[in-house]
Amino acid sequence: MGWMSRALITLAKSHQAKYNVISGISQSSRHGFSTTSFNAARMFTDKHEWVDLNGKVGTVGISNYAQDSLGDIVYAQLPDVGSDFNIQDECGALESVKAASELYCPVSGKVVEKNPEVENTPGLINQSCYDKGWLFRIELSKPEEMEQLMDEAAYEKFLKSQADDG
Amino acid sequence: MQSVLSKGVGVILRTASKHPHFFAPAATTTNSFILWETGFASHGASKQPLSSSPLRFYSAKAGLATAKDEPEKSVFISQSADIHTNLALEDWLYKNFNFENHQVLLLWRNDPCVVIGRHQNPWAEVDVNLAEESKLTIARRNSGGGCVYHDRGNLNCTFFTPRAGYDRKKNLEIICRALDRQFGLQAEVSPREDVTLHGYKQISGTAAKLGKNAYHHCTVLVDADLKKLSALLNPNTDGLESKATKSVKAPVKNLKAANDEVTVENALASIGYEYLRTYSDGNDGGEELIQKQRGFQMVNPTNEWFPGLDKIRSEFKSWDWNYGKTPEFSFQRSYPVGLGRDGNIAANISFRLNVVKGLIQLATLELPSEKQSLLDPNTFADLSAFINAIKDRPFHMGILATFEGLLFKRNNPVSLNVTHQRIRESLLNA
Asked: Three-state SS for B430?
Protein backbone atom coordinates (compact mmCIF):
# COMPACT_ATOMS: atom_id res chain seq x y z
CA MET A 1 0.00 0.00 0.00
CA GLY A 2 2.81 2.31 0.98
CA TRP A 3 4.36 2.77 -2.42
CA MET A 4 0.98 3.32 -4.00
CA SER A 5 -0.06 6.07 -1.66
CA ARG A 6 3.36 7.66 -2.10
CA ALA A 7 2.87 7.44 -5.85
CA LEU A 8 -0.54 9.03 -5.53
CA ILE A 9 0.82 11.86 -3.46
CA THR A 10 3.57 12.39 -6.01
CA LEU A 11 0.94 12.30 -8.72
CA ALA A 12 -1.18 14.87 -6.95
CA LYS A 13 1.84 17.07 -6.52
CA SER A 14 2.88 16.66 -10.11
CA HIS A 15 -0.63 17.61 -11.21
CA GLN A 16 -0.46 20.77 -9.21
CA ALA A 17 2.88 21.54 -10.71
CA LYS A 18 1.60 20.69 -14.16
CA TYR A 19 -1.24 23.14 -14.03
CA ASN A 20 1.21 25.83 -13.05
CA VAL A 21 3.34 24.91 -16.01
CA ILE A 22 0.37 24.89 -18.36
CA SER A 23 -0.89 28.22 -17.20
CA GLY A 24 2.59 29.50 -17.94
CA ILE A 25 2.44 28.49 -21.60
CA SER A 26 0.89 31.26 -23.61
CA GLN A 27 -1.09 30.42 -26.71
CA SER A 28 1.51 32.05 -28.92
CA SER A 29 4.29 29.85 -27.56
CA ARG A 30 2.22 26.67 -27.81
CA HIS A 31 4.44 25.34 -30.55
CA GLY A 32 7.62 26.86 -29.26
CA PHE A 33 9.94 26.35 -26.39
CA SER A 34 10.96 28.39 -23.47
CA THR A 35 14.54 29.51 -23.76
CA THR A 36 15.49 27.68 -20.56
CA SER A 37 14.91 24.32 -22.25
CA PHE A 38 17.29 25.09 -25.10
CA ASN A 39 19.79 22.35 -25.61
CA ALA A 40 22.09 22.36 -28.61
CA ALA A 41 22.58 18.60 -28.53
CA ARG A 42 18.90 17.74 -28.58
CA MET A 43 17.73 16.54 -32.00
CA PHE A 44 14.16 16.01 -33.15
CA THR A 45 12.24 13.71 -35.49
CA ASP A 46 9.18 14.61 -37.56
CA LYS A 47 7.27 12.24 -35.24
CA HIS A 48 7.98 14.67 -32.41
CA GLU A 49 10.51 12.61 -30.49
CA TRP A 50 13.83 14.00 -29.33
CA VAL A 51 17.24 12.38 -28.83
CA ASP A 52 19.99 13.83 -26.70
CA LEU A 53 23.23 12.02 -27.51
CA ASN A 54 25.90 11.53 -24.87
CA GLY A 55 28.74 9.40 -26.22
CA LYS A 56 27.13 6.35 -27.79
CA VAL A 57 23.96 6.55 -25.72
CA GLY A 58 20.99 8.71 -26.65
CA THR A 59 18.28 9.77 -24.21
CA VAL A 60 14.84 9.75 -25.87
CA GLY A 61 11.69 11.69 -25.06
CA ILE A 62 8.79 13.46 -26.75
CA SER A 63 8.64 17.14 -27.61
CA ASN A 64 6.66 19.82 -25.86
CA TYR A 65 4.40 20.03 -28.89
CA ALA A 66 3.71 16.27 -28.65
CA GLN A 67 2.94 16.25 -24.93
CA ASP A 68 0.68 19.26 -25.35
CA SER A 69 -1.31 17.73 -28.19
CA LEU A 70 -1.62 14.37 -26.41
CA GLY A 71 -3.08 15.87 -23.23
CA ASP A 72 -2.87 14.19 -19.81
CA ILE A 73 -0.79 11.06 -20.22
CA VAL A 74 -2.11 8.25 -18.00
CA TYR A 75 0.07 5.34 -19.04
CA ALA A 76 3.55 4.98 -20.49
CA GLN A 77 4.37 1.69 -22.18
CA LEU A 78 8.14 1.82 -22.60
CA PRO A 79 10.40 -0.61 -24.47
CA ASP A 80 12.09 -3.38 -22.47
CA VAL A 81 15.73 -2.93 -21.61
CA GLY A 82 17.82 -5.10 -23.90
CA SER A 83 15.47 -4.93 -26.86
CA ASP A 84 16.76 -3.91 -30.29
CA PHE A 85 15.00 -1.54 -32.64
CA ASN A 86 15.51 -0.17 -36.10
CA ILE A 87 14.90 3.46 -36.80
CA GLN A 88 11.16 4.21 -36.96
CA ASP A 89 10.13 0.87 -35.42
CA GLU A 90 7.17 1.02 -33.10
CA CYS A 91 8.76 0.73 -29.66
CA GLY A 92 6.03 1.60 -27.15
CA ALA A 93 2.93 3.69 -26.59
CA LEU A 94 1.64 6.57 -24.54
CA GLU A 95 -1.97 6.61 -23.48
CA SER A 96 -3.86 9.84 -22.97
CA VAL A 97 -7.57 10.56 -22.88
CA LYS A 98 -8.54 7.11 -24.19
CA ALA A 99 -6.09 7.19 -27.09
CA ALA A 100 -3.04 4.94 -27.38
CA SER A 101 -0.36 6.76 -29.38
CA GLU A 102 2.47 4.77 -30.85
CA LEU A 103 6.04 5.67 -29.99
CA TYR A 104 8.56 5.34 -32.79
CA CYS A 105 12.19 4.66 -32.17
CA PRO A 106 14.00 7.78 -33.43
CA VAL A 107 17.30 5.93 -34.03
CA SER A 108 18.42 2.31 -34.38
CA GLY A 109 20.00 0.59 -31.40
CA LYS A 110 19.59 -1.33 -28.16
CA VAL A 111 17.58 -0.02 -25.22
CA VAL A 112 19.89 0.21 -22.20
CA GLU A 113 17.67 1.94 -19.66
CA LYS A 114 14.11 3.12 -19.22
CA ASN A 115 12.72 5.75 -16.92
CA PRO A 116 10.87 4.05 -14.05
CA GLU A 117 9.71 7.42 -12.71
CA VAL A 118 7.71 7.94 -15.88
CA GLU A 119 6.23 4.45 -15.62
CA ASN A 120 5.09 5.26 -12.08
CA THR A 121 4.01 8.81 -12.80
CA PRO A 122 3.24 9.25 -16.52
CA GLY A 123 2.19 12.86 -15.82
CA LEU A 124 5.93 13.66 -15.63
CA ILE A 125 5.95 13.62 -19.43
CA ASN A 126 3.44 16.46 -19.48
CA GLN A 127 5.15 18.25 -16.67
CA SER A 128 8.77 17.98 -17.74
CA CYS A 129 9.09 16.47 -21.22
CA TYR A 130 12.76 17.46 -21.71
CA ASP A 131 14.02 16.58 -18.25
CA LYS A 132 12.27 14.32 -15.73
CA GLY A 133 9.92 13.03 -18.40
CA TRP A 134 12.58 11.30 -20.54
CA LEU A 135 11.42 7.87 -21.69
CA PHE A 136 14.37 5.57 -22.37
CA ARG A 137 18.06 5.46 -23.26
CA ILE A 138 19.34 3.71 -26.34
CA GLU A 139 22.82 2.68 -27.42
CA LEU A 140 22.98 3.74 -31.06
CA SER A 141 23.96 1.08 -33.58
CA LYS A 142 24.02 3.63 -36.42
CA PRO A 143 25.19 6.95 -34.95
CA GLU A 144 25.12 8.47 -38.45
CA GLU A 145 21.30 8.44 -38.21
CA MET A 146 21.60 11.45 -35.92
CA GLU A 147 22.47 13.49 -38.99
CA GLN A 148 18.97 12.93 -40.39
CA LEU A 149 17.35 14.52 -37.34
CA MET A 150 16.47 18.19 -36.94
CA ASP A 151 18.09 20.54 -34.49
CA GLU A 152 15.82 22.66 -32.36
CA ALA A 153 15.65 25.57 -34.82
CA ALA A 154 14.84 23.27 -37.74
CA TYR A 155 12.21 21.48 -35.67
CA GLU A 156 10.54 24.74 -34.76
CA LYS A 157 10.48 25.66 -38.43
CA PHE A 158 8.99 22.22 -39.18
CA LEU A 159 6.23 22.75 -36.60
CA LYS A 160 5.46 26.12 -38.09
CA SER A 161 5.18 24.69 -41.60
CA GLN A 162 2.89 21.93 -40.29
CA ALA A 163 0.67 24.51 -38.61
CA ASP A 164 0.56 26.57 -41.81
CA ASP A 165 -0.43 23.53 -43.88
CA GLY A 166 -3.09 22.50 -41.41
CA MET B 1 -39.74 -5.55 -53.06
CA GLN B 2 -41.62 -4.03 -50.18
CA SER B 3 -43.71 -7.08 -49.69
CA VAL B 4 -40.62 -9.22 -49.38
CA LEU B 5 -39.18 -7.20 -46.54
CA SER B 6 -40.80 -7.51 -43.18
CA LYS B 7 -41.77 -4.63 -40.99
CA GLY B 8 -38.80 -5.49 -38.80
CA VAL B 9 -36.58 -3.62 -41.19
CA GLY B 10 -39.08 -0.90 -41.97
CA VAL B 11 -36.74 1.94 -41.28
CA ILE B 12 -34.18 0.59 -43.67
CA LEU B 13 -36.91 0.13 -46.22
CA ARG B 14 -37.74 3.79 -46.15
CA THR B 15 -34.14 4.64 -46.74
CA ALA B 16 -33.78 1.85 -49.22
CA SER B 17 -36.45 3.25 -51.44
CA LYS B 18 -34.40 6.41 -51.71
CA HIS B 19 -31.24 4.56 -52.57
CA PRO B 20 -32.28 1.48 -54.48
CA HIS B 21 -28.73 0.85 -55.61
CA PHE B 22 -27.68 -0.11 -52.14
CA PHE B 23 -29.98 -3.01 -51.87
CA ALA B 24 -30.82 -6.33 -53.29
CA PRO B 25 -34.04 -7.98 -52.16
CA ALA B 26 -33.53 -10.10 -49.10
CA ALA B 27 -35.76 -12.93 -50.12
CA THR B 28 -34.97 -15.49 -47.50
CA THR B 29 -34.28 -13.69 -44.31
CA THR B 30 -35.57 -10.62 -42.62
CA ASN B 31 -33.18 -10.61 -39.72
CA SER B 32 -29.83 -10.49 -41.36
CA PHE B 33 -28.39 -7.42 -43.04
CA ILE B 34 -30.08 -6.59 -46.28
CA LEU B 35 -27.26 -4.33 -47.31
CA TRP B 36 -25.54 -6.07 -50.16
CA GLU B 37 -22.07 -5.59 -51.54
CA THR B 38 -21.90 -2.50 -53.69
CA GLY B 39 -19.13 -0.40 -55.06
CA PHE B 40 -22.35 0.81 -56.62
CA ALA B 41 -20.98 3.98 -58.13
CA SER B 42 -19.03 2.10 -60.70
CA HIS B 43 -20.60 -1.33 -60.62
CA GLY B 44 -24.28 -0.83 -60.00
CA ALA B 45 -26.22 -3.10 -57.70
CA SER B 46 -24.35 -6.28 -58.34
CA LYS B 47 -25.14 -9.34 -56.29
CA GLN B 48 -21.91 -11.00 -57.24
CA PRO B 49 -19.96 -12.01 -54.18
CA LEU B 50 -16.79 -10.08 -53.63
CA SER B 51 -14.65 -13.12 -53.13
CA SER B 52 -14.17 -13.29 -56.88
CA SER B 53 -12.04 -10.17 -56.61
CA PRO B 54 -10.32 -9.99 -53.27
CA LEU B 55 -9.39 -6.50 -52.16
CA ARG B 56 -11.03 -4.82 -55.08
CA PHE B 57 -12.08 -1.93 -52.86
CA TYR B 58 -8.50 -1.43 -51.93
CA SER B 59 -7.13 -0.73 -55.35
CA ALA B 60 -10.26 0.40 -57.19
CA LYS B 61 -10.27 3.77 -58.90
CA ALA B 62 -12.91 6.29 -57.96
CA GLY B 63 -16.17 5.63 -59.76
CA LEU B 64 -17.28 9.25 -59.87
CA ALA B 65 -15.33 12.43 -59.56
CA THR B 66 -15.53 13.98 -56.09
CA ALA B 67 -14.84 17.44 -54.86
CA LYS B 68 -11.17 18.27 -54.97
CA ASP B 69 -9.28 17.12 -51.86
CA GLU B 70 -12.38 15.45 -50.47
CA PRO B 71 -11.65 11.78 -49.75
CA GLU B 72 -14.14 9.20 -50.92
CA LYS B 73 -15.88 7.21 -48.25
CA SER B 74 -16.86 3.60 -47.81
CA VAL B 75 -18.83 1.85 -45.14
CA PHE B 76 -17.52 -1.65 -44.56
CA ILE B 77 -19.75 -4.13 -42.76
CA SER B 78 -17.90 -7.04 -41.23
CA GLN B 79 -19.57 -10.36 -41.74
CA SER B 80 -17.88 -11.88 -38.73
CA ALA B 81 -19.20 -11.78 -35.17
CA ASP B 82 -15.99 -13.13 -33.68
CA ILE B 83 -14.14 -10.59 -31.55
CA HIS B 84 -10.64 -11.77 -32.44
CA THR B 85 -11.42 -11.78 -36.14
CA ASN B 86 -12.91 -8.29 -35.99
CA LEU B 87 -10.01 -6.91 -33.97
CA ALA B 88 -7.65 -8.46 -36.51
CA LEU B 89 -9.61 -6.91 -39.40
CA GLU B 90 -9.47 -3.52 -37.72
CA ASP B 91 -5.75 -3.86 -37.14
CA TRP B 92 -5.14 -5.05 -40.70
CA LEU B 93 -6.91 -2.02 -42.17
CA TYR B 94 -5.05 0.29 -39.77
CA LYS B 95 -1.69 -1.12 -40.77
CA ASN B 96 -2.18 -1.67 -44.49
CA PHE B 97 -4.68 0.80 -45.84
CA ASN B 98 -3.96 4.25 -47.20
CA PHE B 99 -6.76 6.51 -45.99
CA GLU B 100 -5.52 9.70 -47.68
CA ASN B 101 -8.05 9.56 -50.51
CA HIS B 102 -10.42 6.93 -49.23
CA GLN B 103 -11.79 6.96 -45.71
CA VAL B 104 -13.55 4.04 -44.13
CA LEU B 105 -16.14 3.43 -41.47
CA LEU B 106 -16.09 -0.20 -40.34
CA LEU B 107 -19.27 -1.44 -38.70
CA TRP B 108 -19.13 -4.67 -36.76
CA ARG B 109 -20.66 -6.59 -33.91
CA ASN B 110 -19.70 -9.52 -31.80
CA ASP B 111 -20.98 -12.49 -29.94
CA PRO B 112 -20.93 -11.82 -26.18
CA CYS B 113 -17.48 -10.82 -24.97
CA VAL B 114 -15.66 -8.26 -22.85
CA VAL B 115 -13.10 -5.99 -24.48
CA ILE B 116 -10.42 -4.26 -22.42
CA GLY B 117 -8.14 -1.36 -23.37
CA ARG B 118 -4.53 -1.85 -24.45
CA HIS B 119 -3.10 -0.91 -21.04
CA GLN B 120 -5.66 -2.45 -18.74
CA ASN B 121 -5.59 -5.23 -16.21
CA PRO B 122 -8.28 -7.85 -16.98
CA TRP B 123 -8.53 -8.88 -13.31
CA ALA B 124 -9.11 -5.29 -12.28
CA GLU B 125 -11.80 -4.72 -14.89
CA VAL B 126 -13.64 -7.99 -15.39
CA ASP B 127 -15.04 -10.68 -13.15
CA VAL B 128 -12.73 -13.18 -14.81
CA ASN B 129 -14.23 -16.16 -12.97
CA LEU B 130 -17.72 -15.26 -14.10
CA ALA B 131 -16.50 -14.71 -17.66
CA GLU B 132 -14.83 -18.12 -17.66
CA GLU B 133 -17.89 -19.83 -16.19
CA SER B 134 -20.10 -18.29 -18.86
CA LYS B 135 -17.54 -19.19 -21.56
CA LEU B 136 -17.22 -15.55 -22.46
CA THR B 137 -14.11 -14.24 -24.18
CA ILE B 138 -12.05 -11.46 -22.65
CA ALA B 139 -10.16 -9.69 -25.41
CA ARG B 140 -7.52 -6.98 -25.25
CA ARG B 141 -7.73 -4.41 -28.01
CA ASN B 142 -5.03 -2.14 -29.36
CA SER B 143 -6.58 1.20 -28.49
CA GLY B 144 -6.50 3.02 -25.17
CA GLY B 145 -9.41 3.63 -22.85
CA GLY B 146 -11.63 1.45 -20.71
CA CYS B 147 -13.46 -1.81 -20.61
CA VAL B 148 -16.67 -2.50 -22.57
CA TYR B 149 -19.13 -5.36 -22.96
CA HIS B 150 -20.21 -6.47 -26.44
CA ASP B 151 -23.00 -8.67 -27.67
CA ARG B 152 -25.24 -8.81 -30.75
CA GLY B 153 -27.25 -5.91 -29.33
CA ASN B 154 -24.24 -3.63 -29.54
CA LEU B 155 -22.91 -1.99 -32.70
CA ASN B 156 -19.24 -1.08 -33.05
CA CYS B 157 -18.12 1.74 -35.32
CA THR B 158 -14.48 2.24 -36.34
CA PHE B 159 -13.66 5.51 -38.11
CA PHE B 160 -10.36 5.22 -40.01
CA THR B 161 -8.45 8.31 -41.12
CA PRO B 162 -4.89 9.38 -41.73
CA ARG B 163 -3.36 10.57 -38.46
CA ALA B 164 -3.95 14.22 -39.41
CA GLY B 165 -7.65 13.63 -40.05
CA TYR B 166 -8.34 12.09 -36.63
CA ASP B 167 -11.29 13.87 -34.99
CA ARG B 168 -13.37 11.94 -32.45
CA LYS B 169 -15.87 14.70 -31.83
CA LYS B 170 -16.79 14.97 -35.51
CA ASN B 171 -17.29 11.21 -35.70
CA LEU B 172 -19.51 11.15 -32.64
CA GLU B 173 -21.53 14.02 -34.05
CA ILE B 174 -22.22 11.88 -37.11
CA ILE B 175 -23.68 9.26 -34.79
CA CYS B 176 -25.77 11.87 -32.96
CA ARG B 177 -27.12 13.31 -36.22
CA ALA B 178 -27.98 9.83 -37.49
CA LEU B 179 -29.92 9.03 -34.32
CA ASP B 180 -31.77 12.32 -34.57
CA ARG B 181 -32.55 12.06 -38.28
CA GLN B 182 -33.74 8.47 -38.18
CA PHE B 183 -35.19 8.05 -34.71
CA GLY B 184 -35.68 11.55 -33.33
CA LEU B 185 -33.30 10.77 -30.46
CA GLN B 186 -31.45 13.73 -28.96
CA ALA B 187 -28.05 12.26 -28.16
CA GLU B 188 -25.08 14.44 -27.38
CA VAL B 189 -21.31 14.26 -27.16
CA SER B 190 -20.16 14.44 -23.54
CA PRO B 191 -17.08 16.37 -22.37
CA ARG B 192 -15.24 13.03 -22.10
CA GLU B 193 -16.13 12.41 -25.75
CA ASP B 194 -18.65 9.68 -25.26
CA VAL B 195 -22.24 9.79 -26.46
CA THR B 196 -24.93 10.35 -23.86
CA LEU B 197 -28.70 10.37 -23.98
CA HIS B 198 -30.83 12.62 -21.83
CA GLY B 199 -27.80 14.30 -20.38
CA TYR B 200 -26.08 11.51 -18.53
CA LYS B 201 -26.86 7.94 -19.59
CA GLN B 202 -24.05 6.75 -21.77
CA ILE B 203 -25.02 4.86 -24.95
CA SER B 204 -21.53 4.76 -26.40
CA GLY B 205 -17.94 4.41 -25.24
CA THR B 206 -14.97 5.73 -27.20
CA ALA B 207 -11.31 4.79 -27.62
CA ALA B 208 -8.60 5.47 -30.19
CA LYS B 209 -5.30 4.31 -31.65
CA LEU B 210 -2.86 6.76 -33.19
CA GLY B 211 0.15 5.98 -35.32
CA LYS B 212 0.87 6.67 -38.96
CA ASN B 213 -2.85 6.10 -39.50
CA ALA B 214 -5.47 6.58 -36.85
CA TYR B 215 -8.73 5.04 -35.84
CA HIS B 216 -11.39 6.04 -33.42
CA HIS B 217 -13.82 3.34 -32.47
CA CYS B 218 -16.87 3.35 -30.28
CA THR B 219 -19.65 1.10 -29.11
CA VAL B 220 -23.32 1.91 -29.65
CA LEU B 221 -25.60 0.17 -27.17
CA VAL B 222 -28.83 -0.67 -28.96
CA ASP B 223 -30.25 -3.68 -27.21
CA ALA B 224 -27.39 -5.17 -25.24
CA ASP B 225 -27.77 -7.32 -22.13
CA LEU B 226 -27.11 -4.63 -19.51
CA LYS B 227 -27.52 -7.03 -16.60
CA LYS B 228 -24.72 -9.17 -17.94
CA LEU B 229 -22.69 -6.04 -18.61
CA SER B 230 -22.89 -4.87 -15.03
CA ALA B 231 -22.33 -8.32 -13.55
CA LEU B 232 -19.18 -8.80 -15.60
CA LEU B 233 -17.69 -5.34 -15.22
CA ASN B 234 -17.86 -5.15 -11.44
CA PRO B 235 -15.25 -7.58 -10.12
CA ASN B 236 -14.01 -7.78 -6.58
CA THR B 237 -10.62 -6.07 -6.77
CA ASP B 238 -9.76 -6.05 -3.06
CA GLY B 239 -6.02 -6.09 -2.67
CA LEU B 240 -5.19 -5.43 -6.31
CA GLU B 241 -2.82 -2.55 -6.95
CA SER B 242 -1.94 -1.53 -10.46
CA LYS B 243 -0.86 1.40 -12.57
CA ALA B 244 -2.93 0.10 -15.47
CA THR B 245 -5.45 2.41 -17.09
CA LYS B 246 -8.65 2.29 -15.06
CA SER B 247 -12.08 2.37 -16.61
CA VAL B 248 -14.32 5.29 -15.76
CA LYS B 249 -17.65 3.81 -14.74
CA ALA B 250 -20.74 5.41 -16.19
CA PRO B 251 -24.46 4.64 -16.11
CA VAL B 252 -25.48 3.16 -19.46
CA LYS B 253 -28.64 2.89 -21.48
CA ASN B 254 -29.80 1.02 -24.58
CA LEU B 255 -31.13 3.07 -27.49
CA LYS B 256 -34.03 0.66 -27.72
CA ALA B 257 -35.17 1.72 -24.26
CA ALA B 258 -35.49 5.28 -25.54
CA ASN B 259 -37.16 4.37 -28.83
CA ASP B 260 -38.31 0.82 -29.43
CA GLU B 261 -38.03 1.18 -33.20
CA VAL B 262 -34.24 1.09 -32.97
CA THR B 263 -32.57 -2.16 -33.96
CA VAL B 264 -28.90 -2.86 -34.56
CA GLU B 265 -29.68 -3.22 -38.28
CA ASN B 266 -31.38 0.11 -38.72
CA ALA B 267 -28.94 1.90 -36.41
CA LEU B 268 -26.17 0.48 -38.60
CA ALA B 269 -27.85 1.72 -41.78
CA SER B 270 -28.58 5.18 -40.44
CA ILE B 271 -25.05 5.71 -39.08
CA GLY B 272 -23.61 4.40 -42.36
CA TYR B 273 -25.70 6.81 -44.45
CA GLU B 274 -24.94 9.73 -42.17
CA TYR B 275 -21.22 9.00 -42.52
CA LEU B 276 -21.52 8.95 -46.32
CA ARG B 277 -23.40 12.24 -46.46
CA THR B 278 -20.94 14.07 -44.21
CA TYR B 279 -17.97 15.98 -45.61
CA SER B 280 -14.66 15.53 -43.84
CA ASP B 281 -15.09 19.01 -42.33
CA GLY B 282 -18.27 17.78 -40.64
CA ASN B 283 -20.75 19.57 -42.91
CA ASP B 284 -23.76 17.81 -44.37
CA GLY B 285 -23.48 17.02 -48.08
CA GLY B 286 -26.97 15.53 -48.32
CA GLU B 287 -28.13 12.94 -50.84
CA GLU B 288 -25.86 14.36 -53.48
CA LEU B 289 -22.75 13.50 -51.52
CA ILE B 290 -24.00 9.98 -50.80
CA GLN B 291 -24.20 9.39 -54.55
CA LYS B 292 -20.53 10.28 -54.91
CA GLN B 293 -19.31 7.81 -52.30
CA ARG B 294 -18.38 4.21 -52.76
CA GLY B 295 -21.20 3.19 -50.49
CA PHE B 296 -21.73 0.11 -48.36
CA GLN B 297 -19.69 -3.00 -48.73
CA MET B 298 -19.97 -6.32 -46.98
CA VAL B 299 -16.52 -7.40 -45.88
CA ASN B 300 -15.55 -10.96 -45.28
CA PRO B 301 -12.59 -11.00 -42.88
CA THR B 302 -10.66 -13.97 -44.20
CA ASN B 303 -7.02 -14.51 -44.93
CA GLU B 304 -7.86 -14.66 -48.63
CA TRP B 305 -9.23 -11.13 -48.63
CA PHE B 306 -6.74 -9.78 -46.16
CA PRO B 307 -3.43 -11.61 -46.51
CA GLY B 308 -1.88 -12.07 -43.07
CA LEU B 309 -5.17 -11.72 -41.21
CA ASP B 310 -4.93 -15.20 -39.67
CA LYS B 311 -1.61 -14.37 -38.09
CA ILE B 312 -2.93 -11.15 -36.56
CA ARG B 313 -5.98 -13.03 -35.35
CA SER B 314 -3.93 -15.68 -33.59
CA GLU B 315 -1.94 -12.95 -31.84
CA PHE B 316 -5.16 -11.34 -30.64
CA LYS B 317 -6.28 -14.73 -29.38
CA SER B 318 -3.07 -15.58 -27.53
CA TRP B 319 -2.53 -15.61 -23.77
CA ASP B 320 0.60 -13.52 -24.30
CA TRP B 321 -1.46 -10.68 -25.72
CA ASN B 322 -4.59 -10.83 -23.59
CA TYR B 323 -3.02 -11.56 -20.20
CA GLY B 324 0.73 -11.26 -20.82
CA LYS B 325 0.39 -7.59 -21.78
CA THR B 326 -1.10 -6.72 -18.40
CA PRO B 327 0.85 -3.87 -16.79
CA GLU B 328 2.77 -4.99 -13.70
CA PHE B 329 0.54 -5.33 -10.65
CA SER B 330 0.41 -6.74 -7.16
CA PHE B 331 -2.24 -8.65 -5.31
CA GLN B 332 -2.30 -8.74 -1.55
CA ARG B 333 -4.80 -10.20 0.84
CA SER B 334 -4.70 -10.70 4.59
CA TYR B 335 -6.37 -13.48 6.52
CA PRO B 336 -6.95 -13.87 10.23
CA VAL B 337 -5.19 -16.79 11.92
CA GLY B 338 -6.03 -17.99 15.37
CA LEU B 339 -8.48 -16.40 17.74
CA GLY B 340 -7.48 -15.14 21.15
CA ARG B 341 -9.40 -16.11 24.27
CA ASP B 342 -11.47 -12.97 23.96
CA GLY B 343 -12.46 -13.96 20.44
CA ASN B 344 -10.32 -11.26 18.85
CA ILE B 345 -8.11 -12.03 15.92
CA ALA B 346 -4.66 -13.02 17.14
CA ALA B 347 -2.73 -12.21 13.98
CA ASN B 348 -3.04 -11.68 10.24
CA ILE B 349 -1.19 -13.65 7.65
CA SER B 350 -0.68 -11.77 4.46
CA PHE B 351 -0.28 -13.26 1.02
CA ARG B 352 1.24 -11.11 -1.68
CA LEU B 353 1.87 -11.68 -5.38
CA ASN B 354 3.84 -9.48 -7.73
CA VAL B 355 2.77 -10.14 -11.29
CA VAL B 356 4.91 -9.12 -14.24
CA LYS B 357 3.73 -9.80 -17.80
CA GLY B 358 0.95 -11.92 -16.37
CA LEU B 359 3.41 -14.22 -14.54
CA ILE B 360 3.93 -14.47 -10.80
CA GLN B 361 7.35 -12.98 -10.31
CA LEU B 362 7.28 -13.03 -6.54
CA ALA B 363 5.01 -14.70 -4.02
CA THR B 364 5.39 -13.86 -0.36
CA LEU B 365 3.81 -14.89 2.88
CA GLU B 366 4.01 -12.68 5.93
CA LEU B 367 3.27 -13.55 9.52
CA PRO B 368 4.97 -11.89 12.50
CA SER B 369 7.56 -14.43 13.67
CA GLU B 370 6.33 -14.42 17.26
CA LYS B 371 2.90 -15.44 15.94
CA GLN B 372 4.10 -18.34 13.85
CA SER B 373 2.98 -20.81 16.47
CA LEU B 374 -0.58 -19.88 15.63
CA LEU B 375 -0.20 -21.65 12.34
CA ASP B 376 -0.23 -25.42 12.26
CA PRO B 377 3.25 -26.60 11.10
CA ASN B 378 1.72 -28.73 8.33
CA THR B 379 -0.26 -25.79 7.07
CA PHE B 380 2.86 -23.70 7.11
CA ALA B 381 4.70 -26.36 5.10
CA ASP B 382 1.80 -26.55 2.59
CA LEU B 383 1.73 -22.82 2.13
CA SER B 384 5.50 -22.62 1.71
CA ALA B 385 5.42 -25.36 -0.90
CA PHE B 386 2.58 -23.57 -2.61
CA ILE B 387 4.26 -20.19 -2.90
CA ASN B 388 7.39 -21.85 -4.24
CA ALA B 389 5.40 -23.80 -6.79
CA ILE B 390 3.50 -20.85 -8.21
CA LYS B 391 6.56 -18.76 -8.96
CA ASP B 392 6.81 -17.93 -12.69
CA ARG B 393 3.36 -19.39 -13.29
CA PRO B 394 0.55 -17.44 -14.95
CA PHE B 395 -1.58 -15.51 -12.49
CA HIS B 396 -5.21 -16.52 -12.22
CA MET B 397 -7.91 -16.12 -9.61
CA GLY B 398 -7.84 -19.82 -8.74
CA ILE B 399 -4.50 -19.24 -7.01
CA LEU B 400 -6.21 -17.20 -4.32
CA ALA B 401 -8.86 -19.85 -3.84
CA THR B 402 -6.20 -22.53 -3.51
CA PHE B 403 -4.26 -20.44 -1.03
CA GLU B 404 -7.38 -19.92 1.05
CA GLY B 405 -8.14 -23.61 0.88
CA LEU B 406 -4.68 -24.54 2.14
CA LEU B 407 -4.77 -21.96 4.88
CA PHE B 408 -8.14 -22.92 6.27
CA LYS B 409 -8.26 -26.67 5.66
CA ARG B 410 -7.09 -27.59 9.16
CA ASN B 411 -9.31 -25.06 10.78
CA ASN B 412 -12.23 -26.45 8.90
CA PRO B 413 -11.37 -30.01 7.89
CA VAL B 414 -14.95 -31.01 7.13
CA SER B 415 -15.69 -28.62 4.31
CA LEU B 416 -12.27 -28.41 2.81
CA ASN B 417 -10.09 -31.30 1.94
CA VAL B 418 -7.14 -29.69 0.29
CA THR B 419 -4.04 -31.63 -0.52
CA HIS B 420 -1.00 -31.27 -2.69
CA GLN B 421 -3.10 -32.88 -5.36
CA ARG B 422 -5.19 -29.75 -5.39
CA ILE B 423 -2.11 -27.58 -5.79
CA ARG B 424 -1.14 -29.62 -8.78
CA GLU B 425 -4.64 -29.39 -10.23
CA SER B 426 -4.66 -25.69 -9.75
CA LEU B 427 -1.37 -25.35 -11.55
CA LEU B 428 -2.48 -27.62 -14.36
CA ASN B 429 -5.50 -25.43 -14.87
CA ALA B 430 -3.37 -22.33 -15.05
From this structure: coil
